[in-house]
Amino acid sequence: MPGKPAKKQKRQQFKKDVEGEEADGRLPQKKFYRQRAHANPFSDHSLEYPRSPSGMDWASHYPAYAVKSNEGEGRDESRGEGETAKPRSTSKQVEIADIGCGFGGLLFALAPKFPSTLIIGMEIRTSVTEYVQEKVRALRVQHREDGGYQNAACLRANTMKFLPNFFEKGQLGKIFLCFPDPHFKQRKHKARIVSYTLNSEYAYVLRPGGVVYTITDVEDLHNWMVEHFEKHPSFERVSKDEQEKDDCVEIMRNETEEGKKVTRNNGIKYVALFRRIEDPPWP
Amino acid sequence: MQYPYQCIESCNRSATEDSRWILFGGRGSKLVAQSSTGVASVWPPEDEDLAVSMSGWHEDEPTEPPGKKIKLSHSNDQISTFSSLTLSHDGQHLIAVTSEDKSIRVFQIDSDCNLRQLSQRCMARRPCAISLTEDDSTIFCADKFGDVYALPLIQPSEDEQNGTPADEPSEQDTPKHYVPAASVLTVHSGRNRKVLEEQMKQASKGQKKSKEQLKFKHELLLGHVSMLTDILHATVEGRSYIITSDRDEHIRISRGLPQAHIIEGFCFGHEEFISRLCLTTSGLLVSGGGDPYLCVWAWLDGRLLEKVFIRDAVLAFLKNHPNLASSLPENDDSFRIAVCGIWSVPRRKKEQDEILVACEGIPAVFSVRLDGTTTIDAVPLIGNALDVAFVYASEDSCTTVVSVDNIHKPGSTTEIREDEGTSRLQYFAHLDGRWEDDTKFEDKLEWFSRQAPNDARNAHGDEKAVRDTLYIVENLRKRPGAEDQD
Ligand SMILES: C[S@@+](CC[C@H](N)C(=O)[O-])C[C@H]1O[C@@H](n2cnc3c(N)ncnc32)[C@H](O)[C@@H]1O
């Protein structure tokens, strides 16, 4: 669904304004980036995705970590994005993914918490992604002195189809699935972001010991996620004790947009963490 | 209207058995079989005395072709179209997929070439491809919604007896006591709220029956969020693997049973849908689909060894045939192919990997030798290539049987031919690296290729139904923006 023309105009105007002035740290306004709540994960969106993890241009998302591929080449290192045809790499790999990051509340809370870890928000809705990207840009400008938020970025992706295009086997240490769309309808269960078969993909991109964080206010969805991760031989549930000791859990409860909404409505938040266990030997 | 074989499969038995080989063909909703001894059969049987008339026929008395005796009187209520045929490794069973009823059918092949249906299992989603484990115990079924299920080849007897769902994966479970999935406290979009209200209503009305509960043993192994297009089972150094391909350019390597939940890796390199996978004699993986090239893989470590630009060979073939060249676009670059079949040519020596490739609507098969030089030769056909099977007339003489489209004009998937009586099969022998017509089969399979009874349904000449059965691969191509939102 295209955004209302007025919204679109406002977004474009904002983009033009901040582009004009190098050091503009103004934050984007959420109301101009709202979008219909659901996107169909099965349809052929005109998505851009790398053909394989090695074809991913991470440097354009984390310019502060870009590696100069060749001294002699004299590549333009100014902030001009998407100019280079060849993928450029970063000195570090992304290790935290916030899947379905929405407006990025969690992403922006995690960035200062893990200042030396690259964090990526992944979102299927175009203008929501655009909002987060604008906010990343603004925060980086605001934090030019201390180099904050250089480790946070957001890209548009349908993670249910293309997660392995972005990450190598065992690349990630943490995956967040915060307040996923519940897809109540019976026949839409395959559209849920957690299922026995998709969990194999999360297991593939997570390294042994890595953790999937889930939170929802829908009790049935919580039970569903627990059931499907517990059934999957590559995961074990993290004990309540350990869960409450993990700082990320508090951040996830309080810093996600949905988490805040649920708090305002005095709703209940269900949390569950699952650890990737080592693959068993071949039979 | 005549009807071609949309799929064929061969069974080669050792010389000690009474029939050396049997050829099977799916023609509309008919399954036709003929053996080297001249015995033939059609499933489902049209007529009581068909079996009698057929078994009395031998190749040395072709003056009275049995086709004439077959009455096409009664209409059949079995209308599902055969979309693929797979032979078990031991040659005892034929596994057929029929599309409209989404079924996997297992047939016992009796010694007299008769087919006996042992089971019909109707899947929740349309099966796109199947594969069998080496020990023939398990069928892997890859479906349109991206899931792979394992089913025992021979249905356990308890399945039919009590008819209860056996260990249903809970992806498709309906909660026993209906609980609405969200509480009224749940804060979500208006749309979700509406669904919730709807669910509350449903709950008060009593639970809806789920259509998706399958009443036979089946186990969910793995899944892509995409349409699956092919599946292979492979064993390397005692380890078994499942290779799956999808419409979103992925080739996934998973461990075999009982660890099919573990993904070992991916083969990245395609830019368009993948439609076919094939393992060569030496164990390389070849994949093809909507791209102008095939990919050759050292698949265990996801390494792309080579791209074979098959499109160029197809283009050159069409340009060499003036009657076909008219269908070409003005600009070579906009010429697209859709690979609809890749077959490994049986070879004695492992180093001599050779494959045959067919593209939708192209009257040729392309032989590709992967011996380091990658040579491509076109083998011209009298009609568009549909399927390929390899038949052994003797232990060391292998004939390649190609099913061709005898309805549409060569090079076209829409225009109907004017000529009639074109053979539905062509035969080739491999002589000194060249593909030559193998005439000895023309007589032997005369009945199969020209006379076997038609699908009664097609007597009405539903051109579109025939076309939709034969040409489905190009439809896998994505049309970006078609369903896009924002
Ligand atoms: C209810 S919102 C939660 C947003 C955020 N995580 C939070 O807690 O505030 C779920 C988000 O997941 C996104 N989403 C749904 N399916 C997705 C997919 N297949 N790939 C990426 N994002 C997806 C939706 O667009 C939506 O923004």
TrEMBL record, chain A:
Keywords: Methyltransferase, Nucleus, RNA-binding, S-adenosyl-L-methionine, Transferase, tRNA processing, tRNA-binding. Its main location: nucleus. It comes from the Eukaryota. GO terms for cellular component: nucleus; tRNA (m7G46) methyltransferase complex. It is an enzyme of class 2 (transferase). Residues 1-54, 68-91 are annotated as: Disordered. The active site is at residue 181. GO terms for molecular function: tRNA (guanine(46)-N7)-methyltransferase activity; tRNA binding. It is found in: Nucleus. Belongs to the class I-like SAM-binding methyltransferase superfamily. TrmB family. Forms a complex with TRM82. This is tRNA (guanine-N(7)-)-methyltransferase.
From TrEMBL, chain B:
The keyword Repeat applies. It is found in: Nucleus. One of its GO terms (cellular component) is nucleus. InterPro entries: Trm82, WD40/YVTN_repeat-like_dom_sf, WD40_repeat_dom_sf, WD40_rpt. One of its GO terms (biological process) is tRNA (guanine-N7)-methylation. Keywords: Nucleus, Repeat, tRNA processing, WD repeat. Its main location: nucleus. Residues 156-176 are annotated as: Disordered. The keyword Cell membrane does not apply. It holds the Pfam family WD40. Pathway: tRNA modification; N(7)-methylguanine-tRNA biosynthesis. PANTHER family: TRNA (GUANINE-N(7)-)-METHYLTRANSFERASE NON-CATALYTIC SUBUNIT WDR4 (PTHR16288:SF0), WD40 REPEAT PROTEIN 4 (PTHR16288). Belongs to the WD repeat TRM82 family. Required for the formation of N(7)-methylguanine at position 46 (m7G46) in tRNA. In the complex, it is required to stabilize and induce conformational changes of the catalytic subunit. This is tRNA methyltransferas-like protein. It comes from Lophiotrema nucula.
